[in-house]
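Structure first, sequence second, as always.
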């Protein structure tokens, strides 16, 4: 399941960068790449949300720092 962890972590990072650019620069990376309100953009947001939930649920088992 390492691939699932890697993909979900990448999507969580995408979500974090998107929120950061929205707040700091009023620029939405996902909307800029996929088009504002596009179905693909909405799918990215859903995947980011699901990835965040997955990371939250499995973080302690995957993280070397937290599992000490």
């Amino acid at each position: 399941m390492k691939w699932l962890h890697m993909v979900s972590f990448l999507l969580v990072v995408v979500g974090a960068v998107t929120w950061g650019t929205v707040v700091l620069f009023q620029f939405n990376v996902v909307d800029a790449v996929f088009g504002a309100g596009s179905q693909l953009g909405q799918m990215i947001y859903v995947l980011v949300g699901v990835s965040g939930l997955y990371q939250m649920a499995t973080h302690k088992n995957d993280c070397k720092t937290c599992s000490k």
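Margin note: The two ends are 21 Å apart (CA to CA).
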